[in-house]
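Form 7-S
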Amino acid sequence: MSQSWPNHSRTGVAQPNAHRLTPFLILASAATAAIFGFAFYGEWDRFLRLVWAQDFGTSDPIYLRDIGFYLFVLPFLNLVQISLVLLTLGGTLMLGLAYFRMGDLRFGAKRYVAADPKVLRHLIANTVLLLTAWAWGYYLDRFGLLTRSAGAVFGAGYTDVHVVLVGLWVALGATVALICVLVWVAATNAPRFAVFGIGGYLVILLAALEVIPWSFQRLIVEPNELELETPFLRHNIALTRAAYGLDKIDVRFHTTEKKLDVAQMQENQSTIDNIRIWDHRPLSQTFRQLQQIRTYYSFSDVDVDRYWINGDYRQVMLAARELSADLSGKGSSWVNRHLQYTHGYGLAMCLAADKDDQGGPVFTVEDLPPKGSPDLTVSRPEIYYGTEMTSYQIVPTGVKEFDYPEGDQNVYTSYTGHGGVLLDSFWKKALFAWHQFDMSIVLSSYLSPQSRIQLWRTVQQSVSRSAPFLKLDHDPYLVVDQGRLFWIQDAYTVADGFPYSEPTDDGFSYIRNSVKVVVDAYEGDVRFYVIDPADPVLRAYHAAFPSLFRSLDEMSPGLRQHLRYPRDLFEVQVDKFNTYHMTVPQVFYNREDVWAPPQEKFGGEAIQMEPYYVLMKLPGEDRLQFLLMTPVTPKDRDNMIAWIAARSDFPGYGEMIVYKLSKDNLILGPLQIEATIDQDTTISRQLTLWDQRGSRVTRGNLLVIPIDQSFLYVEPVFLLAVGMNIPQLKRVIVGDGNHLAMESTLAEALQVVFGERPSTPEETTEAPQAPISGPREALSKAEQALRRGDWTAFGREWERLKSLLEK
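Output:
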């Protein structure tokens, strides 16, 4: 039944309604423009990668497109597609609402839509645009099959390739058919037929994209999953290994011997001399107590590195003495916070493998001003850029800057570098006052035309402001080079959408440590050095910002000697390799040989063992080198199945090696060694006696050190005495898988383990004692034994004392 519609264009009946809707339409259009503008503003990185896209030289196995398409082009196309869908959907809904408000669109009899033919054609035209963008989405979804998880395979599996892919083409064709139906409806003014077209369209989508794929997977694929999915499992394994650099890992088989001997230890003396006995957690507390000097300094983190000291290549532990952000009381005035207390000063550094007679660190750099080895002279110790400096500073000013304490007096200085922005005009001061919400920048009379404001003074802030497209390692570390202090920050290029690559918990499926960033602790200069020029993602950014990056050859030799394989990347790669070392599809499918990170004890609780840096010789090699390594264990078991190392020295920087252990021999893992220590009656008794005296005993991180074809296990023992806050390294536990010893030093423990001398507790076999005259004498002898560390004698005298008191 035809409808009679007034001609508003001639009668003007609806014009008042249209005028009332004009503000609404303008506001809606402005809001839409703002929303999409801000959305695309935040997606600048996708546009950057699109413009400077690079080829990987490797194609996906399904569509044979270069991997670069998925990392550089497809993300931007997906963004445009979803934006067009939202934009046309929002426009169509607003248009329909406007026509409804004006009375040109209403529900007629039997709930059919009644509309003026011109209105109907206008709405259908917008709907066609929406469906066109929607159909394009089905086309792009084909590529998305390679980056989703379904069934046994990450990426497109058997059902995806043989059924879902066909379903997407059907959905695309059905969308085109629906567009044709709507165009016919607009031409014939028969809106009721659109309802049938949409209904049929939804049925086709449900069948093609849901019902048929689900039924095929359950009835055909799952009963024959291994057979059908094997080719796709190969794609998953190969491309995940490529995305994380696992395909370049050198896998070796480590033949193990049960027992070390003295000859092997002597041949590996340089490794023994550099076994780290300090745990960074208690050492950080020791640094704060011994080297913080004043409350306005802080040590935030202890790092591990290596230096040439007196002609020897030694492993060290160091921390920057930074300015604390907490200036309490009267010290928190604006002048103190921003003009006077402006920088940290120097560092503390100690040998990782040594301790003094009192259980403290052997410092190679210490005190204020810094003193230490001639190889480690620090001529520019001021730290204006660090890891904890979150507030802005203004230097130099009319206020002298605190430099360091000297006795009862303070030494002052003025900044002479070029870090920061000159405040040489009123307008600059006003601009930064507005930016910092701090009018003191304008009002202070201490500022001069030579004053500079230093913003973003943390290392990661400085790097992120210069290159926000790089993902940063969590741990920048301090380096001494030619008397100056520098921070080295590892930076990664990451991407999601790598075909068949299983993503991490952080969402990326591709990663490379392509850039080493050096930040001058005094000047704040940030320099980016390319360490992996073959990385296509970095090549894209390099093409976009050619002046930002430098060749690694331009880095000073002194800094280059302190580059290290980053732990964040190592942990990601080890986590993936724990599963993707299985390259046989059947083994991978059954998860027959999944590895896991080992457990160790700290603070009495089992925790996941952290990868650790060591200075050692690899089996079969003669060169002492700085490595990052970790043992690995089978999943849900504690014995060691392999160990993984990454080289940090040149030549060979970045090479990863996996040493697989024989499954025929049981090699104790870290947690099993911890249990062995707990069960050793001599060690347990000594640790218990310390605890009974009120001191707190902490066993540090357990290190597994490969020595030729065997392993050495080393664990430090720290004592925190009552009333003190300085952990002392009192004992070192050493084991070789067969014997354990706990002695005052690593060397003494090694001598006991290898039978060169008896252990200290066991060697105390005193002659029969004369009758004790009384409890006082027994107590005196027990105290003497405790002071000299003779735990057997102490226990004997303590029992005699209790016996006498009971009598």
